[in-house]
Amino acid sequence: MNVLTFKLKTIPDIDGCRRLYDLHGLSDDDVAKAVFHKRRQEANTEILRHHLHKVIAVSAVLRAGDQFKVWSLGTVESNEADLLQRFYSGIARYRPKLVSWGGVEFDLPIIHYRSLLYPLNASQYWEAGQSDSSFQNDNYVSRYHDRHTDLVGLLAGFQASASAPLNEIATLCGFPGDMGIGTNQQIWQSYQADGIKDIRDACETEVLNTYLVHLNFQRNRGMIDQAQYEIECRMVRDNLIASNQSHLITFEKNWLDQ
Fold it and tell me: Around Cβ 193, how many Cβ atoms within 10 Å?
């Protein structure tokens, strides 16, 4: 089956927060500061509730047949509706197995809520046997089906107290881990400074870490053997070197041989 590993980067939905919290008259930056502060008071975190995120980047690794590709959907000018539709269109085209790190608790609920704002076609994603009986017992939206593997949930035995940061697991496995913009505040500040390309690049390195950890997991569960694992890793390295993209080449250089 084709495999699509994915990750989002988001900022606060400034216009939505203005309406919800009557913050009219404030600058975009002041609205962001207000909602981050409100969230810290509510839950001692700056991670906003899912519906208050606005998607500004969706990065993916696609493994389909002999194809390997890492990229960010759309362009630096793409709006949220375009990014979400491209995500759904990729699912309709490839019908892949989805892989994420925290997708069940973070990425997918954001995608679900934000999609309600636009007239998008997400029928293949939500298919659960209505039109295609093969999806009745194997679809994207059931926790107990295999079309979406949320690695952190599975590896932690679905125990929140046992979940681990992707950066730390990837680093322990010899992969580069975090290489760019991480926190919500950093993403917002970079976005304000016209740094959307840097955000997309950082998202691509994050999704690469996720894909490579997934390869380790596939080796552990017997889906690939050590020889196949090494072939896959070599293929990824070769593609990164040949990409002519500095962040991907740096990622490969920081990838430890183990």
Answer: 9
* DSSP state letters, 9-70: EEEE-HHHHHHHHT-TTS-HHHHHHHHHHHHHHHHSSS---GGGEEEEEEEEEEEETTEEEE
Could you read off the pLDDT of 91-127 as tens digits, one per residue?
999 999 999 999 999 999 999 999 999 999 999 999 9
With contact defined as beta carbons under 8 Å apart, do 170 and 254 qualify? no
In this structure, the strands spanning 3-12 and 97-100 are parallel
Query: What is the C-alpha separation between 139 and 97, in angstroms, rounded?
Result: 9
Which helix (H) or strand (E) segment holds residue 216: the answer is: helix 196-220
User: Which secondary-structure segment (H or E) carries 8?
Assistant: strand 3-12
Domain covering 3-253, topology: Nucleotidyltransferase; domain 5 (3.30.420)
Q: Whose CA is closest to 29, among 196, 188, 194, 190? A: 188
Asked whether the predicted pLDDT for residue 154 surpasses 90, the reply is yes
Q: Count of alpha carbons within 13 Å of 218, Cβ hemisphere only?
A: 20
Report how far residue 25's alpha carbon sits from residue 250's, in angstroms, rounded to the nearest whole number. 43
Contact between 147 and 100 (Cβ < 8 Å): no
Q: In 217-251, which positions are buried (b, 16+ CB within 10 angstroms) versus exposed (e)? A: bbbeeeebeeeebeebbeebeebbeebeeebbebb
Q: What is the DSSP string of 67-95?
A: EEEEEESS-TT--HHHHHHHHHHHHHHH-
CA 75, 77, 82, 87 dihedral sign is positive
Q: Is residue 244 helix, strand or coil?
A: coil
How much of the chain, in percent, has pLDDT values that exceed 90?
88
pLDDT exceeds 70 at position 247: yes
